[in-house]
Give the backbone structure.
Amino acid sequence: MNLIRRSKKSTDATANAEPPLNEIGDVGAVAAMFERLRQQNAQYDQAIAALVAANRISIGWDKPAEPEMTLTIQREVLLALGDTDALAKFDQQHQQALAQEHAARVKATQQGLEAPTRVKALEQYLNDLAGQMVAGLDETLIDQEIRRIFRPSAQRMLDAAKTFVQAWREMQSVEAVLLQRVRLTHTRVTGDTCTRYDHELIGRQRDGELLPTLIEGVPFEELRELNDLFTSTDNELVTALDTALRSAGFDGWGLKVYHPKPQGDERSIYAPDPNPPKKVLAPYVGNGVCDVVRVDV
């Protein structure tokens, strides 16, 4: 809900003015950075998935599927027997299937042999990609842009606050003079002091309140609503501004900036396996210590 409601007599230009939205301006440079980072995030996630798969093969959690070798063995038997006619006929009949068996064997062998090398290559790729993320990001520019968009609203707040402070001081001054002028001393003829009438125009302001909820001449409900608005955001403006910024590409929500390893850091790239082998604790009777038994599934 807007604290400042537009008058029905306002001009069309004033009625259509939405300062925070109009002050977004050109955020193309930051939007381009975010889009590039978004693509790099996707590449990083894909490479991490490949690294996890390679790690599983390299450490023996996943074994390449054993290829079919039925035709290969039959051919080797014919070759060993030296029956060239039967071998030629066999090759002619099973040429395509033999080629598929051979390709499957090569693939299975390569997966096992290349896994460690593949892990190293993927880690190098991820580390280089992280370097590209850091090199292509200008946090100073992002900071300058968000400050540029924010400052006009802050200035409007300051201008409104100056008007508010002036009105607040006026109200307090009027209260102080009035209460001083009507100050009466009540006393008994016996000399005892009597409690005088307490004229209260402004109540005590509690922590977190913009205004006390007791101000003479102002309804309590309006003061309470104003205090509630003071401690909350304008939901309509939040939605409109958020939509406008996302439409302009000024949206870094959920994006990650990975930093490369320092020189000489030999640690592996962090790539947690989402489905590691189950670990079962087998009780050991005797000294109370348990042996950890890993069951690969």
Remarks:
- The first strand starts at residue 279 and ends at 282.
- The chain has a mean pLDDT of 84.
- DSSP finds nine helices and two strands in the chain.
- The first helix runs from residue 12 to 15.
